[in-house]
């Protein structure tokens, strides 16, 4: 009976892949006192100066339907933040508030790819992006990043060779979850040139841009904003989740040429019909007053990256390079071919939970992903345990 019900569903829905982290997370939760480093978020709740704006809004009765694109105050706050960050004037008309970075990706995919189309995605990748393409009937086409002495690298020739007459878009996530690969400005210019040559869209996922570890401690990673020109086919997806410890608020934004405004508004109308006003009030405060909290998060992540990198290096058994951005360590372990089994074994012997690399698309198997946006004390404890346990795998 159940299989008949399932068989009658649209295959795009019924065959959507399950998250490759679920099995590990269930196993680790059942194991009790495990340091949980498999999930992509920090260890801090949302700060009070942010959430109090939401409670004030609720108390004031802001509980009704609202602007589909986002309240004007929030769109202006995003525009001011982004104009400052990218050093160019970006009007509020470019920004569309939606329910999370994930929904921003869904909206972007819906704009540019559908049944029979292909979307090129460098891999290892956050699996939700290819899944969003698949749900729309499009095929994700993976281009594996290379991993050598200089860390994770993109092969631009391989990227262009993946373009076919069916290709509609490239999903480019930099700094990357899970690898930490961070494109240089020159690489972004080259990727944009490929997009221009073939008439492709770029879905730019730069949500980790503030977490960047390259020379000179820049304020952000290189962005397509640094290389784009008027008329380029680029849609950015973004989120409040990571910078301001707001993963549970499920709010993000799409940035695109204002010419797309009515279309994007329709997509919001026919999904959530707009984000809650009280949440948007908190988001305004995050943007306007959240820089020192964010600076604290970045400093913490930088310290944690060094602590955990030293421990992994010290094992002498790991294929790994210090990531240039985001807050994940993605490392291979010599002799490990089944990352799910290895992750479970680490739960047993080290009481540390990591995400199996097999969850992150082609090129991921044999690796483990560790989220290090944690206090230095917790990361030091996890690092010690991993240093002792990895040689036993
Ligand atoms: C690369 C990337 N993009 C987008 C998101 C979406 O974040 P959220 O849906 O929490 O806004 C995530 C979350 O982990 C991510 O890693």
TrEMBL record:
Q: Name one GO biological process term.
A: amino acid metabolic process
* Cofactor field: pyridoxal 5'-phosphate
Q: Which SUPFAM superfamilies match?
A: PLP-dependent transferases
Asked if Transferase is a keyword of the record, the answer is: yes
Q: Which residues form the signal peptide?
A: none
Catalytic reaction equation(s): L-aspartate + 2-oxoglutarate = oxaloacetate + L-glutamate
Name all Aminotransferase class I/classII large domain ranges. Answer: 35-386
EC nos: 2.6.1.1
Key words, A-Z: Aminotransferase, Pyridoxal phosphate, Transferase
Q: Which Pfam families did the record assign?
A: Aminotran_1_2 (PF00155)
In which domain of life is the source organism classified? Bacteria
Q: Name one GO molecular function term.
A: pyridoxal phosphate binding
Q: Which NCBIfam families match?
A: PRK06108.1
Q: Which family does it belong to?
A: Belongs to the class-I pyridoxal-phosphate-dependent aminotransferase family.
Full protein name: aspartate transaminase
